[in-house]
Amino acid sequence: MRVLEKAPAKINLSLDVLHKRKDGFHEVKMIMTTIDLADRVELIDLPIDEIRIVSHNRFVPDDQRNLAYQAAKLLKKRYGIKRGVSISITKTIPVAAGLAGGSSDAAATLRGLNRLWNLGLSFEQLAELGSEIGSDVAFCVYGGTALATGRGELIEHINPPPHCWVVLAKPTIGVSTADVYRNLNLNAINHPNVDGMVNAIQNGDYAQICHYMGNVLESVTLRMYPEVANIKEQMKRFGADAVLMSGSGPTVFGLVQYESRLPRVYNGLRGFCDQVFAVRMLGERNSLD
Ligand code: ATP
After folding, report:
1. 237 Cα: distance to centroid of ligand 1 (angstroms)
2. Within a 10 A sphere around the Cβ of 257, how many other Cβ atoms?
3. Residue 241 catalytic?
4. Among this protein's residues, is 236 annotated catalytic?
5. Is 105 touching ligand 1 by the criterion CB < 6 Å?
6. Residue 288: its pLDDT value, please?
C-alpha cells in the first residue's frame, strides 16, 4: 500500500512576537496561509518495524533529524504501531527558507500515515501530535489560512484571502530560526497590527491586506543579511503590490493582484536570486481523504 500527500509551503502575512515565555519559547501572534508551492511526500507501508527516509536533496537529512521521520516515530509510539514506512520526499520548497518546508513534510506524513494505517484520527488529534514536533507543524496539518498564537501551535481558522499571486525569491543564504529569535530585541521593534490583518482578510479587502503586512523578525534578518533588504527593494521596483519577508527568512514574497503584472516581477527577480517562484495563494484547507 502507498499514499501520496502534497505538503504545501506557508507564508506569514503578519508576524508579531509578544514576549519571551518562562519556558524559553516566544509568544507569537501571526497569520499563516498556504501557497501553491509544495513538496511531494510518498509513503509506502513496510511489514517491518522501521522508518526509512528517501530524499535526494543534500540539504535534507535522511535520518531521525528529518521532521517527517519524527512524525512517523511519534505516531508509531503513541498508537503502538509495529509496522514500518518508507517516506520518500521530493523537495520543491527551498530548505531553511522561512516557508515551513520541513514542518509541512512532517504534517503531510501525519495525514498520510493516518490514511495508510487506517487510524481514523481527526485533524485536531494530528495537529496535537504535530505541535510536539515543531511550532509550525500544527498549522501545516490543517493548511488554509489561520491566526496562530501561543508558540504558533494554537490555530484559529479564518477565511482564505481573496485570490492573488505570490512571487517568492530566496537568496542562497540559509537562515537559522533560533539565531533570529536569539537576536530579537523586543524593546526596539514596531509591532504589526495583526488584528487589522485579520479584519482585512475577513473583509476580502486586498488593498488593506497589503497595507497591514508586517513581520517583526525583519528587524533581525535584514540587519544580519542586507541582501534580503535589497531583494525587497527590487521586488517593489519591479511592481509587486506589497513585499515582506516570510517567517525568519530569508525568503521574500511579494503579492501581485493581476496576472498581467506577474512576468515583470518574476523575470526582474531572476537576475538577483537563484530561486524564484510565481504561485497562487491557496488559502484552502487540506483534506483527510
Ligand atoms: P520554518 O519556516 O518552520 O522556520 P524553514 O522553512 O525555515 O522552517 P526548513 O526548510 O523546515 O526551514 O528546514 C530547517 C532545517 O530542518 C533544515 O536545515 C534541515 O536540516 C532540517 N530538516 C528536517 N527535516 C526536513 C525536511 N523534511 N525538509 C527540509 N528540511 C528538514
Report:
1. 30
2. 18
3. no
4. no
5. yes
6. 84
